[in-house]
């Protein structure tokens, strides 16, 4: 039987009644932890037009998080802040291209990434199912907070205009873009590419690709825990967080994406609260979501909403 068009898909994901209270409690617990930011100038990665700093801050569970922070050398006033969040298997890039466009750009390495794995290191594969039977132990509870604390880092910088902060990422970075925009009202613009972490329970039936197959691998070994897994993931699903997004947002999906099924991207997009939203569905494209073309749209979108 052929699949229905992605934009007509009806998700089986159900929103917990207490999802907002759960995340307000997690955010409050995180806020009680001193950020303790550090910044070290990195001459090797800096250039004539961009200065690069290796940065660190403390997140939920007192886990120390690393990142790269890039600034244009020539600046006359407060800069818009741009948080870049990474994919599942990738290490965060040094965000010099964003700095060259006039942003104070932070590329954060959530727990488990190479420079943030001293205290937490479930591995890849492994991250997606670590602590998956309890919402209070699930890996993405801290992972989401690590991205949110990147917002705190930017807000605390003298050179950043705290009223002009955006977030962007692709794949897992797209999912983190959704969760960060949902959980941090300070975000004023968001661009999510091929968003992962949306429709987990849908995706494990729609695709046989990894990383989502980590969940099926786990359930094959632990079939008696399916309901616990479903209940936990509901609190972290971008579809269930999208109602909290009030900033302008754009989403891109590849209509032939076998890693993050486009159905899940559309289901998340349809749940977004703000009317200031737009989705770009790219036929003939997989997980790249036509990023070669779409990157220019992201540039224009961020400039429209963040640049003076």
Strand content: 15-25%
Number of domains: 1
General shape: globular
Low-confidence residue ranges: none
Description:
This protein has helices at 19-31, 96-100, 139-155, 172-183, 200-206, 213-221, 226-234, 238-241, 262-271, 291-306, and strands at 38-41, 50-58, 64-72, 79-85, 104-109, 160-170, 187-193, 249-254, 277-282. By secondary structure, the protein is of the alpha/beta class. It has a single domain (6-306), classed as Alpha/Beta hydrolase fold, catalytic domain (Rossmann fold), CATH 3.40.50.1820. It has a 9-stranded mixed β-sheet with strand order 1-2-3-5-4-6-7-8-9, with helices on both faces. Strand 2 (50-58) and strand 3 (64-72) form a beta hairpin. Helix 3 (139-155) crosses helix 4 (172-183). The longest helix has 17 residues, at 139-155.
What's the structural blueprint in terms of helices and strands?
Layout: H1 19-31, E1 38-41, E2 50-58, E3 64-72, E4 79-85, H2 96-100, E5 104-109, H3 139-155, E6 160-170, H4 172-183, E7 187-193, H5 200-206, H6 213-221, H7 226-234, H8 238-241, E8 249-254, H9 262-271, E9 277-282, H10 291-306
Descriptors for this entry?
Rossmann fold; nine-stranded mixed sheet; 308 residues
Concise structural overview:
The protein has helices at 19-31, 96-100, 139-155, 172-183, 200-206, 213-221, 226-234, 238-241, 262-271, 291-306, and strands spanning 38-41, 50-58, 64-72, 79-85, 104-109, 160-170, 187-193, 249-254, 277-282. By secondary structure, the chain is α/β, with parallel strands linked by helices. The mean pLDDT is 96.
